Amino acid sequence: SYPNAKARHLVELARMLVSEYGGEVPNDFDALLRLSGVGRKTANVMQAVAFGQSAMPVDTHVYRVSHRLGLVPSTADTPLKVEKALIKHIPADDLARAHHWLLLHGRYVCTSRKPHCDKCELSNICPKKIENSKLQ
Description:
The protein is mainly alpha-helical. 51% of the residues lie in helices and 0% in strands.
């Protein structure tokens, strides 16, 4: 959505990788955050996917599904709070897989505008389906 800014970040990121990390992508979370254009979600994705470490990236799908399924409290109103709530209750060995399960469920079943509840394998336990539920 911001091609010029992304291009600048990629050029600066490449320069940093070469000058500060010998051309290797660091696997340390704080070092990843230092890279141009890399935020918490991207650093967590790198740790989980590229380095096989326990991490819970929170994107729009993970955020939405976590709330709809009641996996996080309503007070978890930022991606960081959702991340912390999920990490608290999901075993470290399952975090990366859980991220993908939540992401894919949100992308294809529990979609933003019109969830496909009729196709959802979790509809029988979904808090959204409980009468008088405050979840949306």
